[in-house]
Hints:
alpha/beta; membrane; ABC-type transporter activity; AAA+_ATPase; transmembrane helix
Amino acid sequence: MLFLVQLTKQAADPREGTLKKTSSTTLAQSNRDLEKAERPAGFDLREYLTSSNDKNQAAGIKHKNVGVVWEDLEVKVGGGLDSKFYVGTLATSTLYFFIGPFFSLWTLISGLLGLNKTRETKTILQKSSGALKPGEMCLVLGCPGAGCTTFLRTIANRREGYENINGKVLYSGIDASEMQKHYKGEVVYNQEDDIHIPTLTVSQTLRFALSTKTPGPDGRLPGISRENFDREIQDTFLRMLNISHTKNTLVGDEFVRGVSGGERKRVSIAEMNGHPGPRPVLGQFHKRIGCLDGTRLRAESPSNDRRPRPDDIHHSASESIYELFDKKPGLTSKASDTSPYPAKRLQTTLRDAPMRTNASLLQGRSKSDVPATPSALEKAFRQSRFGQENDAAVKEYKRYMEMEKGEQEAFRTAVAADKKRGVSKKSPYTLGFTGQVWALTKRQFQTRLQDRFQIYTSFTIALALAFVLGGAFYDQANNIVWGVHTRKRYLLRSPHDELGRLRQSTASTGPSALALANLIADLPFSSLRILLFNIVAFFRMFGLICFSFDSAMRLAVFFIPNFIAYSGFMIPVDSMKKALKWIYYVDPVSYAWQAAMENEFKRITLICDGSSVIPRNILSLVTKYPDQLSVNQVCTLFGSTEGSAVISGTEYLKAGFNLDPKNMWRRNLPVLIAFFVAFEIAQILALEYYPQYGFNTALSFFVHDTDETRRLNAEQEEKKARRSQIREKEQRRQVGHRFLEGKAASETGRPLTWERLNYHVPSTDGDGGQKRLLHDVYGFVKPGTLTALMGASGAGKTTCLDVLAQRKNIGVITGDILELHMRSKWMSTKGTATVREAMRFSAYLRQPANVSKEEKDAYVEEMIELLELQDLTEALVFSLNIEARKRLTIGVELASKPELLLFLDEPTSGLDAQSAWNLVRFLRKLADQGQAILCTIHQPSSLLFESFDRLLLLERGGETVYFGDIGPDSRVLRTYFAKHGAVCPGNVNPAEYMLEAIGAGVAPRVGDKDWKDVWLESAEYQAVRARDRLHQGRWSGEDRYATPFWYQLRLVSARNAVALWRSPEYIFTRIFVCTCISFFVSLSFLQLGNSVRELQFRVFAIFWVIVLPAMVMSQIEPMFIYNRRTFIRESSSRIYSPYVFAIGQVLGEIPYSILCALLYWVLMVFPIGFGDGAAGTNGTGFQLLIIIFMILFGVTLGQMVAALSPSVQIAVLFNPFLGLVLSTFCGVTIPYPQLLGFWRSWLYELNPYTRTLGAMVSTELHGLVINCKPDEWAIFNPPAGQTCGDWAQEFVSVAGGYIDNLNDTIACRYCQFRVGDEFYTPLNIDFGNRWRDAFILFSFFVFNLIVTIVASRFLRYAWR
Length: 1360
């Protein structure tokens, strides 16, 4: 198997050090600290691998020794050399929606006719050739943007997202297409981001990976069961990667507290390996792993015993890591091949420089001694003897692959032996389909069971909803028409859950197996919820065939409203438009509703009395009619017979809906099962064959230039051209003077001091439910100094930085943090802003208000020049690569002109050696001018390390090992360690050696005493404790904002408006939802007349307005919570207040909400024919106002729910509950007279939907004259000798309606309503209260906004 992992460093996870840690040595004390675990004694990986290899050979198990050859490999993406990809806006998305189908049709036709032009492309990886034999490791070096990741992705056979890939890649003679088809599980790419299910433990994560890759009986030693094999391999990986102590700890992520960032990277390495063995590995696994740890991983990796080794990528490799690799090809900024030859020959072509590693030498030479341009470097290499030797090696190894098939056959045999019984030899999977389903089902169960809060919340809401709706429809009568109608409405109630999907990028399991696993895992949970509620609906398929939530929502909105409208309840079958009637027959909801109706009514008998009898007695007002149904009265219920008050439910169904209970089993249930199976098959096919890859991270998206940005970019280009003519040393001197002008040097300011700093967090595996992450940490940061915070992965570096920056809001912090008017800064950016906009936003809000806008803009341009971001000024942040984003986040902080204290979390991670040196050099200049800087740092070179003044070194458990000066050439630090028995050799990087000395890696510590104890007994520790703290005050944690409230609100609102405009999918989906619902509703109710049925249709059309908040909420909540995460990161810098954040979120939504309301109103009012009542056209204008208020209510309700919820998964659980409860108790679903007194007394009155329907229905129906159609008359015969008027006029005068033939003596025709007012008056609706109801609805909008603001202030759910 080829295993490709990214090694690029990046900022450590904020929760680094928050879990159980392994101590650096085996402690002799029996009462050792709880957060430390003993390292397994006597584990020798080389010995283990050697013995395992011997046993495998003795058992006849073949090795997977695969070499790789790439010849003239070239990668291209869409777009020309100077082309840019521009981000879409609402305008472009709307335009494409209308012209897109025609464009696609033209593309199809022109393609068939051969008229398509060749698409313009851009080469991002120039032609490159090389060979990697079994037993060799290859380190890919290059500056960010040079194509290192593209190269590795291509070698790892991850070819999606690129326009063209030319050249050949052979794996022991097997071409890329065959490798992808039959052996894709043997070539694995591990990306930079660690993607795991955060609620699974490390053990569960690895056991799942092993369960899908465990060899079959022919691939294991005799007598070794699968369980024992998996257990041994898992324990081996945990010990090899030194994470045995995390076995039962959650993996976690950015928002779920789990293992540290470095430990999570180790989990990724173990998971991708599947099981250790002789297999080729492509690796890039240095991200979040310390330099010493990375060295140990390579030195003791499975590849170190002449087995296939990793191909590795790094931007800033240390010398110790560099020396472990056999080959080191370098890539220039234009992705040209420069030096893919053995490392031992490197120094024969390039002379080394003092204090620089070979890795940085390849990246940072100047054009005075080597060819400086990418093309010149490539040409020099190809013309050198090393290039010629490389070409010869490629040809020789390629010829070897063609002639000698033994290696290839051994590989094929080994892969076949690994497969379980019954798995096809052509299948790329080790496990069969049923085995995959079982493994995924187990994982789904574990995931759901361990996310207990969501389980409790979902079941509580479902149970509450069942009780509320059950109470609302409690004891519905069988003897009146209201009981029949409410039963029908209840059977249509149906909440649904939004379900996600996890993409599979390896051959561990097939994507289709995930669909079945989700189904099986859902069954017990959904079944129990079914018992609590009754009906569950699945629309998971929409999510599988869409690349975004918004596109899935548009697809769902296209189907769901029509499914509901054409279920047979809202629009009777006979009243459906002929052109749309086919929807009823393909609608799964209609079959479900039919089955539910048949099941409910077949068992009941209806008694015709009360309001279903015409004419009848009405209290004491009318008493002349018989109390029992007589021959001179008529029952208006379907299925009634003359003279009989009893109607069977079966007859009611047949007469009213043409339904037969016999069809429940013979038609409806089979059809529903068929739909279910069809949807499940569609899911499987979608996952298996539909492309699942999404956004290509190799592309940057830009915004179009304005006159201002065009002018500024031209100035930047001029500066860049002038600077290239200045010698490097001269340039560095000028940079410092320009950007530090006006800063007064100060080394006598008040330092930030911390004493006895302890930090405990809640934990089930700690002592007394608490785990200690920091223990008695002392230190200080003086103005004018640069202090480094270092330690192994899990030592608590980022935790300590977070505590000092007051970013922690969980756990208990004890000790003293002392300062005097210090302002702390932290990095953050928003993804939809451009580079220049992000830096300007920071400068505008964080520099003092008395600094002019022009000065702030000029300073931002200087920062752009310093950080060399000139080519990316108009690029959007979300599309930047890691290196550019790192530079930007630093620029965002520097743009604020930090006054005294600056916190940085791994500022050099992800940067190449030269960029890291430039950045640290600039930080050094900032410190020299009086800035106090504290930063965590991984893998510093000797040169970088010497730039720091002091060091705070931590070991696992948050224990201090050293705090003090570093000194020139690290002399002070070397002296301290040498004094205690750890002498650093002169040719070793002291930053690496000190970590090795304290036992932070795999090797034992130096000395027989724990270094934390050495520190506590040292004179240096006593000196730190004895520092003068005079005139220092305790850190209050409060700080004023740099700018006033209204200025903050203006800028934040403007940024939100721009972000929404550049999020066309989000806004266009909102518009699509509103227009689509209104359009299809209007299409079903075109040009309504004035009959009784059409009166009801008018009410149904209005009723769809209250569906809008539910649709809007499901879209608003994810966006609000995403923006809240950005605010939480920015709030640590006190850049703007939480009140500004909440208000800004609403202000950004208002213009689009008004636009949506206007479109909905236009498509509703005119096609349906509203405005025929007494209110006229003025009434339709009032309807627009109500729709605007209603959409604004939905927006703020969604934001309120999101503000009160910790996550999107929790927030969406409340949507069905709120939607169903509000729509049920508004007085229409259950008519006001039939509402129980308990609900009528408070919930009905507090319901905003009550006000919406009351205002809109009364406006539309007031004064609307009703004319019954022939099939709507209630026909009865008066007693002999009486006319229709004589017999029924008394009833009509009280009950309303009219008799069409007053003077007839037979077949009296009674119409239920004369005017629309008679319909809504019994529902407690009054036309005179419509303005009152409108402003009560507006008050609900205001209430939601107030709650959102308060919740944003006090509930941030950032449990860090």
